[in-house]
Design a protein that fits this description.
This protein is mainly beta and 1000 residues long. The chain has 12 helices and 56 strands.
């Protein structure tokens, strides 16, 4: 067998928790009980088992060195080899002839509070003396969005972040996903021998077949097997800004700082073994008296069970000191030890400590903490970092202990089972975990031709991962080999079972029809055309943006996260701007969507953007103003072949780039719009319009519509209605820079009165009380929440907007009879109006008192506190609020936008359709996968109990055993559509609970 087959490699990339970016800190054992077991609760006498137990003790196989690098997991600006203080990620220096297995896993977290930039992660190999080494195998992978068509619908996705393709490459055999979703086929790698003179350098990227850029917030994983035959080399890992030329190292700094250890619950170092541990031969005997389902027990030994504990299930891939749930049943001996030499460790010692060293030790006996912690039991002056755990029962020690998972390490169970019965039986290796696990069974010669992966699942249930025939009357010798890939939780429950038949359930591989994931093209494809402003904005992320082309106009949006946008939810704010470029490819407008733009296009001169959570926005004035477009789908991009007599030709461009042409007789459609006064609404008659076209309802578009110039006409309920888009330009030249983004958003939402967009009042000028009421009224109108006007009680104002707000209890006036419409509104008055608006919309704001230095009227204090706590209004600096100061137009619009967005979330359930008949208990939530669609689960309880909902990564009820009558729906075109698949949980990775009638 090839040497690489003896090794295996894995991958590490943390799943973006809740669309948030979680680091490896969450890699801990998955709880399988509600409280920590005492030793007596899990122990058992050996004679309680039907089969003699065997010792589950692992030992390393040696044979080389394991270079494991996952610290820091998130590469930020301080760990990039560029700028004033360039730094390596890790350094393994002075390596002498041996076999080295490299295992690297990171995330691109550059940006430091703003959108990050593309990087390249690489290993610099430098000869300290003449050296010869052979790269026996190497595999590299990052992620990219893909799309496929299924039953006429295009779905976007991205590879799972375990990088099982790298594992297959290094294992040398296919890895088959038992769910039927993937089969990872290994690529052949031709070994390369490299000869270096002393002082010469090469980069490992030269020897990867699939080397690529790592985009902002994306993971990367690579492995390599290197045989150093002679000489001494340094192997140093670096993150380098991508300079536009993949693999170019001409601008690498000469002096790069050492890659220090940084405490973030991840580790790095070198192990004195290749990444494989194995047991001695485990010998079991069975016969026909052992029934189907007989469990083969094992005895584990660890710090909590030093004398051994015999169990039917044991936990691997976890440090028992770091985990609350597996302390007594964890194998522990499977965990390999890593050392990392780093002089920076010396800086953490207390001043009284004499015995210092520069080696970080990552194992089950030490903590991984650097800074002082009272858990050490020492004073600051006597403190030692990375201290050894003296009291394994110390309360709170778990987070400080080394968070180890044995990623990339093959754990081999060597087995010899004698079947003394008359019937053939099966040995089955069962695991229980939500994590992905890769398993293969090998014969006594070590041969195998495939491996299986479980995939990440919603629930932890026992799953057969290997099944071996045990012929009657024979002794069968084999091994079961398991390892976990990157970006999954450690803590795997293991069990050996004897079965009458094989229970390996392998679903057939799905057939997929892949299509282009973009309507347009990547911005990198037009790099040479970009103007100065566009280059300045996009040059660090060209492959992460899509550009859609129109006539003399272009639309640009972030597209790198289309496959799983909720994984990146914590970073949406860095990448949720949409850009409009002119014919010279210069930026002329921007528009900020509330969450994330997941689709964009230009159709008949109208710009369209789909926001992940809030539908489609459109602009008919070249991006100067935006508003909600009441469409289910973005219209297809249409090109017009004009003036073809009475027959117009419409060319539709499909998502995959193909085009279809249609001939349309205008007269044929005239009768359908007879009741619509075209002249009144467009200034032209239908017959006079030369370039009228029909948006075809068919393969590539949704909804009947007609386009006249920049106007869209949509068929609803057999009547033609116009989707009006104001052609007024929202003039922004007099606005402060800080307010521009909020003004853009207000324009897009359509919550600013038209007169306020076109009047001459500068944004920095104070607003009157009447104008402020107009803002609030416009916002409520967009939310269909305007009440009927009250009878006028004011002698100085009869404005219907003001009187509607009086009805709502939002406006009270300066006295019982006076409103003072033309007086300026003060900041505390504005706070009161905004707070009452929130209350009218049934939204409670936090009233906790805030320290304010200057004076606020007693009647307004609670409202001002609510504004501070919600972030809707802020102070003016130095702890002052300026309660009696004027409130400007731009300040008012900013507060209006913040309140509107707050209310949009709070009011989401009011816009949902009626629930299906027969619903007893329900939960409405936004799904983290499937493009974040809104889903509904209806259910009951079998015992009549009132359920309690638990909301976490997935939604479930407290007592799952009584969960029954499950039905699922998703929201489509304002209706609940039955689910396309059967599930037994409320939600798979919910993106957020919207409404439920269950306590939680």
């Amino acid at each position: 067998m090839k040497f690489k087959i003896l090794l295996h490699a894995l991958i590490i990339c943390a799943l973006m928790p809740q669309a948030a970016f979680a680091a490896s800190a969450d890699r801990e054992s998955e709880a399988v009980s509600s409280e920590e077991p005492a030793a007596a609760e899990v122990s058992a006498e050996e004679d309680a088992f039907a089969v003699e137990p065997q010792d589950i003790v692992f030992h390393t196989t040696g044979g080389g060195k394991y270079l494991y690098n996952n610290n820091p997991e998130g590469i930020d600006d301080s760990m990039v080899a560029a700028g004033d203080d360039p730094r390596y990620i890790s350094n393994h220096d002075g390596l002498e002839p041996d076999t080295y297995y490299l295992y690297m896993s990171y995330f691109n977290y550059t940006g430091s509070g703003k959108r990050g930039y593309d990087i390249e992660v690489d290993v610099q190999i430098t000869a300290k003396e003449d050296a010869v080494f052979t790269i026996e195998d190497a595999s590299f992978e990052t992620i990219d969005v893909f799309a496929y068509e299924e039953n006429g619908t295009v779905y976007h996705s991205m590879p799972e972040w375990q990088f099982n393709g790298v594992c297959a490459d290094m294992l040398g055999v296919p890895i088959i996903d038992k769910r039927g979703t993937n089969e990872y086929i290994p690529h052949d790698y031709e070994p390369v021998t490299v000869r270096l003179k002393a002082g010469e350098t090469v980069w490992l990227s030269e020897y990867f077949e699939n080397y690529d850029v790592v985009h902002f917030a994306d993971p990367v994983h690579f492995q390599a097997l290197i045989e150093l035959e002679s000489g001494v080399v340094d192997m140093d890992t670096a993150a380098l800004p991508h300079n536009g030329i993949l693999g170019d190292r001409s601008d690498v700094p000469e002096d790069i700082g050492f890659g220090i250890y940084r405490y973030d619950y991840t580790v790095k170092g070198i192990a004195d073994t290749l990444p494989k541990v194995e047991t001695d031969v485990l010998e079991y005997e069975i016969d026909d008296t052992h029934p189907d389902g007989t469990i083969l027990p094992g005895t584990v030994y660890n710090q909590y069970s030093p004398d051994g504990l015999t169990v039917d299930t044991w936990c691997s891939n976890i440090n028992p000191v770091s985990d609350y749930w597996s302390k007594y049943t964890a194998v522990e001996s499977d965990m390999i030890k890593l050392d990392y030499e780093d002089d920076n460790k010396l800086t953490y010692y207390g001043k009284n400590v004499k015995d210092k060293d520069n080696i970080w030790r990552f194992d089950t006996r030490h903590t991984s903490v650097s800074d002082y912690t009272a858990l050490s039991g020492k004073s600051r002056d006597d403190y030692s970092p990375n201290f050894e755990v003296e009291d394994i029962f110390l309360e709170g020690i778990e987070p400080a202990a080394c968070n180890l998972g044995n990623y990339g390490v093959i754990e081999t169970y060597n087995l010899e089972i004698t079947n003394n019965g008359n019937e053939d039986r099966y040995f089955e290796y069962n695991i229980m975990t939500k994590s992905d696990v890769i398993v293969y069974a090998a014969d006594e010669d070590g041969s195998f031709d495939k491996a299986y992966c479980k995939g990440i699942t919603d629930e932890a249930v026992y799953t057969p991962m290997a099944s071996v025939l045990l012929p009657a009357g024979e002794t069968t010798r084999f091994s079961v080999n398991m390892f976990i890939p990157v970006n999954v939780n450690g803590g795997i429950q293991n069990r050996f079972v004897i079965s009458d038949s094989s229970n390996m359930d392998i679903k057939p591989q799905e057939e997929r029809s892949y299509v282009d994931p973009l309507r347009g093209q990547n911005l990198s494809e037009v790099k040479d055309k970009l103007g100065k402003t566009a280059l300045e904005e996009f040059s660090a992320n060209l492959d992460s943006y899509e550009i859609n082309d129109g006539e003399g106009i272009h639309l640009v949006r972030w597209c790198a996260w289309d496959g799983a946008p909720y994984f990146y939810a914590n970073s949406w704010g860095y990448c949720n701007k949409v850009y409009v470029l002119d014919e010279d490819y210069e930026i002329v407008h921007t528009f900020t969507v509330p969450s994330m733009a997941t689709e964009s296009d230009i159709s008949a001169g109208v710009l369209y953007v789909r926001d992940l959570q809030n539908g489609i926005y459109s602009s008919s004035d070249g991006g100067a103003s935006w508003k909600v477009a009441f469409l289910n789908e973005i219209p297809v991009n249409t090109d017009f072949v004009r003036n073809v007599g009475e027959i117009d030709t419409v060319v539709l461009t499909a998502a995959d780039g193909t085009r279809e042409a249609y001939k349309i007789d205008l007269a044929e459609y005239k009768d359908y719009i007879e009741s619509f006064d075209m002249k009144q609404n467009t200034g032209e008659t239908f017959d006079d319009r030369k370039y009228t076209s029909m948006i075809i309802n068919g393969k590539y578009s949704v909804g009947n519509g007609m386009m006249l110039g920049s106007k869209i006409y949509i068929a609803k309920n057999d009547k033609w209605i116009m989707n009006e888009v104001s052609n007024r330009i929202f003039e922004q030249k007099t606005a402060s820079e800080w307010a521009s983004e909020y003004i853009d958003r207000a324009c897009g939402y359509g919550i600013v009165p038209l007169y306020m967009k076109s009047d001459e009042k500068a944004f920095t000028e104070p607003l009157t009380r009447l104008e402020f009421c107009d803002l609030i009224y416009e916002m409520l109108e967009c939310m269909d929440a305007v009440p009927a006007p009250a009878d006028s009680r004011f002698t100085d104002c009869s404005d219907r907007h003001v009187l509607s707000l009086v009805t709502a209890g939002i406006i009270t006036g300066i006295s019982d009879t006076e409103f003072a419409p033309q007086s300026g509104i003060t900041r505390e008055q504005a706070a009161a109006v905004l707070a009452r608006t929130a209350a009218y919309m049934k939204s409670e704001l936090e009233k906790t008192a805030v320290e304010i230095k200057d004076t606020v009227s007693d009647w307004a204090k609670e409202c001002v506190y609510m504004m501070y706590n919600s972030g809707i209004m802020n102070g003016v600096g130095d702890g002052n609020f300026d309660a009696y100061g004027s409130y400007t137009k731009e300040q008012s619009i900013t507060a209006q936008v913040r309140l509107y967005e707050y209310l949009l979330c709070a009011d989401a359930y009011n816009r949902l359709p009626a629930l299906p008949n027969g619903t007893k208990y329900y939960a409405v939530y936004r799904e983290k996968f499937r493009d974040g669609r809104i889903e509904l689960t209806t259910f009951d309880t079998s015992d009549g109990s009132v359920p309690k909902l638990i909301s976490g990564e997935s939604l479930t009820i407290e007592n799952e055993s009584v969960y029954t009558d499950d039905k699922k729906y998703y929201l489509s075109c304002g209706e609940w559509v039955p689910f396309e698949k059967d599930y037994i949980r409320i939600s798979n990775m919910s993106g957020g609970l919207i409404i439920t009638n269950v306590a939680y």
